[in-house]
Design brief:
The chain is of the alpha+beta class. The chain has 7 helices and 5 strands. Helix 1 (2-34) packs antiparallel against helix 5. It is found in: Membrane. The chain crosses the membrane at residues 12-31, 144-166, 178-197, 217-240.
Length: 256
């Protein structure tokens, strides 16, 4: 009985740790999806924002007719950030010529519509006659769909886990572990698709010399979420399989 209690404590500890990891990874994924700092551009000469040319750039950025090249140029020049759902630029609150450009800056964002998420990408960004770039088109669509699939799998796994607790059985924990493993693969695929998409875009539209680009903290949250999902999956599956094995051996011992 003492051995059984020790085994129960070990399994319970593994399940608690797995649940905590699952919760943290879900929070990270939700925060990652809802924030706009997947990629950031830092302009070394933001004073251009106050000029007539700069003003026309960020006015076109908010236009409904803005194509990929138009809003990407604005991101380059106006300290832009890009999320999965929105793109943002930093512009002066007061656009008068006598207003100091370094003061009273504000961040304005515009959301990608659902049609934008599934819109075709072109071989030459902004040129509709250049043909469809299938690689970038499907990478963009996958980076939109995969995070929702990942969160959906984890929520479904959590539902199965609650049912397992209600039934006082560890066997469904294997299914929970498998779902978390699949969620980790989706998150890993999301990260890979985003990196590949950014690299392909910058080959088409190279960064200007005075602009620096880097992955932001929203992207880092997704990167951290994937290993957490894999660790949670491993703990769920280990606890369920080991418990089943120990239970079988204990039952055989008692019969003998």
């Amino acid at each position: 009985s003492r051995k059984g209690a020790m085994m129960d404590n070990r399994f319970a500890t593994a399940l608690v740790i797995a649940c905590v990891l699952s919760l943290i990874s879900t929070i990270y994924m939700a925060a990652s999806i809802g924030t706009d700092f997947w990629y950031e551009y830092h302009t070394l000469s933001p004073a251009e924002n106050i000029s007539e040319a700069g003003r026309s750039i960020w006015e076109e950025f908010f236009s409904k007719e803005a194509d990929e090249k138009t809003y990407t140029d604005a991101l380059f020049r106006c300290n832009g950030t890009v999320g999965l759902w929105r793109r943002c630029i930093t512009v002066p609150k007061n656009s008068h010529w006598y207003s100091p450009p370094e003061n009273d800056m504000t961040t304005n964002c515009i959301s990608f519509s659902l049609s934008d998420q599934f819109m075709e990408k072109y071989i030459e960004p902004g040129n509709h006659n250049s043909g469809t770039d299938l690689n970038r088109t499907y990478l963009w669509r996958l980076q939109f769909l995969l995070p929702f699939v990942s969160i959906g799998l984890m929520c479904f796994g959590a539902l199965i886990g609650l049912c397992a607790c209600a039934c006082r059985s560890l066997y469904p924990a294997i299914a929970t572990g498998v779902l978390h493993f699949l969620a980790g693969l989706c998150t890993l695929g999301l990260v890979g698709c985003y990196v590949a998409g950014i690299e392909l875009l910058h080959k088409k539209l190279p960064l200007p010399d005075d602009v620096r680009g880097e992955f932001g903290w929203s992207f880092c949250l997704a990167c951290v979420s994937a290993p957490l999902q894999f660790m949670a999956a491993a703990l769920f599956i280990w606890a369920a399989r080991t418990n089943r094995k120990e239970f079988t051996l204990l039952k055989a011992y008692r019969v003998a």
